[in-house]
Amino acid sequence: MILAGDIGGTRSRLVLYPPGEEGAGVERTLDSREYNDFASLLQAFLDEVQASRFDGISAAAFGVAGPVRGDGDEARVQATNLPWTLSAAELSAVLGGARVRLANDLIAVGMGALASPVDRRVNLNPEAATDAGHAAVIAPGTGLGEAIFFDDGERHRPMPSEGGHCDFAPNDDREAALLTFLRGRFGGHVSYERILSGDGFSSLYAFARQSGLGRPTADADQRLAEASDPNALITRWASRGEDECAMIACRMFARILGAEAGNLALKTLPVGGVFLAGAIVGHILPFLRDYTLEGFLDKGRFATMLGRMPLWVVPDGSLGLAGARRLAEEQTLSR
Length: 335
What we know:
alpha/beta, Nucleotidyltransferase, domain 5, Hexokinase, domain 1, six-stranded mixed beta sheet, about 20% strand
């Protein structure tokens, strides 16, 4: 049996896969905040699915939002949005000695994106030449994740980064005005994550309104105040064409995402492709189709080189689980 987990600050998704089967396994989603530590949540999952009736778990992997320290059994990670410290050795003991891999959640998402079938991706750069080689992943979510995947000739080896916290660089007068607006809002430094994340939609929407770039929908303030997720409401308005400011926000998001994907491509030369991954990119896919490649290619003399690189969208909220499964399977192969 293979165990994979996508561990989030709100929910944790765990799947137990039968050996040698590609289909769906036994999956449960648990409320992370109901447990004092991950070991307790894991034990609750094992009890609920009656894992003891199986032959045993040979390997497990968990994608966790937080920096991973150490390797193998010595690996530990402090969860970013939970008071949890996960230890590979401790979790192995809970799982009866199974080999455990802890990975940053973006690494798991990236592994899932690279393994995704081509027919489940959207190609934003149809002139590109598909090739083997290094790859790069950029995934807007609660924050902005970026990672590089080094091709050693046999498989992709992940290299995490904190590239989402690099300085935002405007590319035109409107984006320069956006930078000034965001510096005032955040009191100084503005990273790409301030824009290319869930909360970025609210910031872009506020900028569009304050700058008079468009007209908001009727009762916008009241509806945003009452919304459980204002960012989701903004993207919904934009997709339906109901709010000019929301549409401007999504256009700017899409172009700036392309620009930062291009920056990552210039730094890493991922001839195997740049992957835009996760649930958010799926919500704004029409805007990505129209504006992201423009930002990606706006690199002066290097536009031609980037024009040959694949730029994929993988709009799948389950990539973290798929990647964790691959990492767990690698544990069995390395025995």
